[in-house]
Each structure stands twice: as C-alpha cells, then as structure tokens.
Design goal:
By secondary structure, the chain is an alpha+beta fold. It is built from eight helices and 21 strands.
Length: 402
C-alpha cells in the first residue's frame, strides 16, 4: 500500500511552512533515512528524511517550490514499483490562506502558490524563491511587482537587489512572513497568558568585565566568553537555588526543572527576526564550553542553520541590548517560561564607595520580567538580588563547589 508523504510539524507552534524543493525525482527509489525534500518553517529551513522506503511518486498537482503548505499537507507517495497511488488531488491539502498568499481571487480548496497565476486585470503573478522573499523583506522591495529572470519568470535574489540598485519597486508595506507572524503571535500570547511584572536593579559589573578581560588576555579558552555566556552560567547557578523562576505553568500545575534541565535560551537578532537558541545543561558545562556552543548557535541562527530542536527546551531566557546602548527595558516572557532577564549596557560611572571615596566602576542594569501567576514579587526579588551578587562576584560563584 502506498505511503503518504505529508508535511511534518517541526515545532510545537508550527501550523504551516514553505515547500522549498524536492531532493529526489519522481520515480526515484527511496530508502529509509534518505533526504526527500526541503521545508522552510518559521524558524529554519531543513531537509526532511524519508520514514519509509519505496518509489517516489510526485503527482502533477504537487506543490511547486515556494508554495505555503499546512502541517499535514499531502505532498506525494512512496509506492511499490507498478503500484497505483490514490487519485485524490493534492491541491485540496495545500494551504490557501497565508502571509505570502492572500490574493482576493483565491478560491477555497484551490492551490494559490508562488507560481505564475493570472489575475483579473490580465497581468501575471510571478514565482519567487524563498531567498528572494527574505532579501525583499529585508530591503523593503515588493517582489510581486518584479519581472523575474529565472525559469518561468521566477524572481531570484539577483532581481531583488537589481531593483534596489535602480531605485524602483520600493514598497510601502512589507508582507508578513511565517516567522514574523509567529513572533507576533508569541508576543501577544505572552501578554495574554501571563501576568508579567518587571523588576530592575543596578549591579557593579567591574569584576564581570575583569573576568572577561582575563579570558581574553590569557587565551585559556578558544573563544573568550561573552558577557551573556557568563551571565547564563551564573543565572543557571542562581536558578538552582530559586527553581520557581525556571518553572512553567501547565494547565492546573506548576512544573519545575530537574538539575540537568537548566537550559538557558538567549535572544539572537537575525535578518529573519528574533530567534532564541538554547544552551543545554548549563550547570554541567564549563564557561569555555558554553562560549563555544553559544558561538556556534549564533552563527547558525544568522545563517538559517538552526533546527527547531535548537530552540526548544529552555527554562529561562536572557536578552542583551547592551550593544545598542540600552540601559534598562521590559523584556517579554518567552512562553511557556516563567521569567526572562534583560541585560543593559555596561557603563563606566563614578560611584561612591563604602569609605566615602569616589571611584570609576563598571555598572549594568538588570531587568527581570516574571509571571506573577507562578512567582510572587518577594521570591522574584530575592532571585534578582542573588543574581546581582553573582554578577558582582562572578569568580567566587564560578569557583564554588557543592
């Protein structure tokens, strides 16, 4: 019996994706584990493996590259040689309403993809590659108005950049991508499903700066830890003492992580929007290892190389806007987590010391947003107080033994 090839759910919140291309041809013999096709989700583009074996059968009405497809959409079949496949039209499984396709002429149950289609004024809609759409969004170009130079009029990245060079086709609005829409939905959901409260405190970061400078000067690590790396390690240590800040609200119960589940997410700004890769088992890893892993995650986030698994399992998130000169802000909780820490800029400022002397010290603002349904103000304040102490004395904390 022919096996259906359907669009998988690559993340808990994924409802649709973009079919990029087949990696096998119609009639090819496919083995279990072979890469069948590429699918672009809201978080990444990744190849999808075959879960069964057989001859690949791609119907004529299968989605073209660039088509937005719903989770569960039927793409094709794996069949035995000579076996008949079901005659049901695939087009009835393709998503018709998407941020890339909201044309007024779309018919229910019909495929409306990025292929060339006629519109009421006699003009044509042209195809566009996922890469061309991403670049068009970044540069503010309405790719729908471009004449593509690719096969069948397909708009390529070159066409988008050429339009910018000519100063034409700049759009007044930018189409919402699946990733941008997911970010928006999660931000709204965070406000609707949590009771957020933000606490701020200022910490003396002089020793934090000194510790990082020691890593840079001595070269004991292949890569000097970033401030976010150091704070992630310290935050995991403090969370172990205040586990409710790493808990999550699930229906009618609050679930706390085990010691090996102190996974810390950190926000990364990319051309595709904000992504939150996750550092796993931070308690059990050295600073040098954390620095290596975070560098790899950042590089893959900015090159569209993150998988959905790379962004799942976090119990606490850190977002650092210090590089932009921001001091304090209100970070938004990353559901289903309970809290998120915002790091501001580190500034050298005059400070009155305990003996009354004035000295230049590095200062940083820490902003903690927490879900008041899970944690009350006093426990959250105690956590932030402990974290401030850890930031002010990082070496002592990192040398602690259980």
């Amino acid at each position: 019996m022919a096996v259906e090839i359907r669009v998988p759910r690559l993340g808990w919140s994924m409802e649709e994706g973009v079919f990029v291309r087949w990696l096998k041809n119609d009639g090819d013999l496919v083995k279990v584990g072979d890469l069948l096709y590429e699918l672009e989700s809201d978080k990444s583009t990744q190849p999808i493996e075959a879960l069964d074996a057989g001859m690949l059968r791609i119907p004529k009405d299968a989605p073209a590259p660039g088509t937005v497809v719903a989770v569960g959409a039927l793409l094709g079949h794996l069949a035995a040689q000579g076996e008949e496949i079901p005659s049901e039209s695939i087009e009835h499984h393709i998503l018709t309403e998407s941020p890339f396709n909201n044309e007024p002429h779309a018919q229910p149950g019909r495929v409306v993809s990025h292929a060339s289609i006629a519109v009421s004024d006699g003009s044509e809609r042209v195809v566009s590659s996922p890469r061309a759409r991403r670049v068009a969004e970044e540069l503010g170009v309405d790719w729908r108005r471009l004449r593509g130079s690719g096969r069948s009029g397909r708009v390529r990245e070159h066409d988008v950049r050429q339009a910018v060079n000519k100063g034409v086709f700049m759009c007044e609005s930018v189409p919402i991508t699946p990733r941008r829409r997911l970010i928006a939905e999660r931000m709204v959901a965070s406000g609707q499903r949590t009771a957020p409260v933000t606490l701020t405190t200022r910490a003396d970061a002089t020793n934090l700066v000194g510790l990082r400078n020691q890593f840079k000067a001595t070269g004991v690590a292949a890569r000097a830890p970033a401030y976010t790396d150091i704070v992630a390690k310290l935050a995991a240590m403090v969370l172990e003492q205040h586990p409710m800040l790493a808990a999550r609200w699930e229906d009618d119960r609050v679930v706390s992580p085990t010691r090996d589940q102190f996974n810390i997410g950190f926000a990364v700004d990319t051309d595709e929007g904000l992504l939150v890769p996750v550092l796993r088992d931070v308690l059990g890893k050295s600073l040098a290892r954390i620095a290596e892993e975070s560098a790899d995650l950042i590089a893959r986030a900015r090159s569209a190389g993150l998988t959905s698994a790379d962004q799942q399992g976090g119990v606490f998130t850190i977002t650092n806007l210090g590089a932009f000169g921001i001091d304090a802000f209100t970070p938004i909780i990353n559901p289903p987590q309970t809290s998120i820490l915002g790091m501001g800029a580190i500034r050298r400022e005059p400070v009155v010391l305990g003996d009354g002397q004035i000295a230049g010290r590095d200062q940083i603002w820490l902003s903690l947003t927490f879900d008041h349904r899970v944690v009350d103000g006093a426990p959250a304040a105690r956590f932030l107080q402990s974290l401030r102490t850890a930031v002010e004395n990082p070496s002592a904390w990192l040398l602690r033994t259980e």
